[in-house]
Amino acid sequence: MPFRRIRNGGILALLAIFGFYIILNLHEYWNYVEDSKGSVLLRNESTLRHYGELEEAPSPILETTLPGHGATHGFTFLDRLYARNGVFYIVTYNSTSFPPKLQMISQLKQLGGGYDLEKTEEELQFISPEEARTVLGNYFLPAKGVSVIINDPPESLNSYYQWWGEVILGFWRMYAVLGLYNGFTADALPLPERFILPNTDDEWRDYLHLNAPIMLAAFNRGQFTTQIVDRRIWLDNIRIRVTVVYERAILISRASALLHPLSVKYQNMVGSTMMLDVPDRFWEPIRTTTVQSILGRDIPYVDKHGITVNPPFPNSTGPVVTYISRQVAEERMLRQDDHERLVAALLELGSEGIAEVHIEYMEDLTFQMQFEVIARTTVLIGIHGAGLTHQLWMPATPKSTVIEIMHPNNYLYNYLMIALNMGHKHYMIWNDTVLTKEDSPEYGHTNDHFDNRAIPLHIPTVMSLVREQLR
Prior knowledge:
Elements: H1 2-29, E1 31-35, E2 38-43, H2 45-48, E3 55-56, E4 71-72, E5 75-84, E6 87-91, H3 101-104, E7 124-127, H4 129-136, E8 139-150, H5 160-181, E9 194-196, H6 211-218, E10 220-221, E11 224-225, E12 227-229, H7 231-239, E13 243-252, H8 254-257, H9 261-266, H10 284-295, E14 301-302, E15 308-310, E16 320-324, H11 336-351, E17 356-360, H12 367-374, E18 377-383, E19 401-405, H13 414-422, E20 425-430, E21 433-435, H14 459-470
Parallel strand pairs: 6-7, 8-9, 8-13, 9-12, 16-17, 16-18, 18-19, 19-20
Antiparallel strand pairs: 1-2, 3-8, 4-5, 5-6, 5-13, 10-11, 14-15, 20-21
């Protein structure tokens, strides 16, 4: 049995060497200091990718402030927001100078459940500078720049429309408002350093695979790219028992936003921001950066007539009209004969030289081709669905128009809200009836026909509207 003893001894020796190697490497990245709150990690490779070096807390601890015009239901900018053990802290002597907790942050378990929305101390606390020394400890991890903290569950983030048409649009609208009152133009606003998702890992990515790549394209200038800090990094910060201080943060909460009367009316979290004055063309910096990054060249320039003039498209006969078809979807599609008549009527526009017509099934196009078409589109037509979120990347001109089709007596404000923010005209089509914003019902509503697979459409009504927009 000597061989077995040697073999077992060799294995033990290898395990000892391997363990020693791990300890050496851990020591390189995990160093501890003693804090008033106990043992605290001073350095962690994962955390330092997203934050700076640990710093000794100032004395006295600086108060949190609310920048002017930086708050509405569900979207709250705060300078020097503190976080420890998963709880946010506002350090102040005067809590009444801030919005109520209910307007800033929500408990996840309460979304859609009809629960009492009063906050507990588990989400957000107000503490004085004196209390902060005891609660927050002696060492802070600084989060420089702008941090966007999205305190929503995965199911509120994992669609193209919810992420881009509500969360990011609402954030940028508020950011542009704040910039306006601080002397910034929309194209000069510093990009956020990080988007923080305390409650989701990869679930914010949508099934169309659009959210993540568009984020990389949109928040990218030169060598700088905004970081995504997901739940795993958030939990790392909790485990290392360190206080993070956000230089400037915006707290985003869907449940809080939906308490605003306009959000109730529009059933859309951006509604809470619509009472605030926003700079003209506030979205254009995001649109420009996104389209240029995705196409790898200058953004197409579309003139007031809807003609692409730079770079020139030799085969373009006029403004681009794009019909996004849902005929291969599992729900919400036109009656097949109405679809075929619509396609024929649109192609006739091309034959007459009135427009350059695209009949597109977006799922069949490459990522780049989708943006190639939409970045030149003047009139976008489609049944209510995620494809109409693409209007975010359409050029805003006097002719830019979104024509949304729904089964009669159904109405949702989703794409009207985006159109209002983009500067596009919006029309809702109920078969042979055209509704403008002024004709919209007091509140959005749906019935049993919302997802109908044979939505009726009166083609002369649609084509009359399209031709009118192109005159």
